[in-house]
Specification:
Elements: H1 2-11, H2 13-20, H3 24-50, H4 59-87, H5 95-120, H6 130-150, H7 152-160
Helix pairs in contact: 3-4, 3-6, 4-5, 5-6
Length: 161
Amino acid sequence: MMAELSQWVGSLPISVAMRRITWLVPMLQTLHILSIGIVLSSVIMIDLRVWGASRSGTAIARSERFMPWMWAALAVAALTGIALMLGAPRSFRDIVFVAKVYLMAAATIATAALPIMLRRNGCGGREAGVPARVVGVVALLLWLGATLAGRGRWIAGMLAG
């Protein structure tokens, strides 16, 4: 099933055209990686406040400051990721890629849940509760997992070589 899907996507005119434009895939990869960096940075900045490692402002204020950056970067990552899938449809058959997609979905849900948990804490966000701290850890681990899964073939080649 996935092999047929990959072949079908690879035969689409947009997929063929993307492979002919030599600079397009490297540009998309660059934008994809930079946007993932912004997502990770935003999550880390929110988590540092949630975990108490940073004391400036409230956890809610920190979340409100960085979540727009995270959502915008996530949109860019998703759009460039979809475009990269069109340009390299073999990724549909890659189990590591499938794991990355599931990790990103779970990470997005955990990250979206964090500000909701902070608002429900009732402490004005000054101190995050244990559940919010746990969700912060889980979100960061999921984002790191998705990032590493995105480099899965590279890491496997490095370990094998």
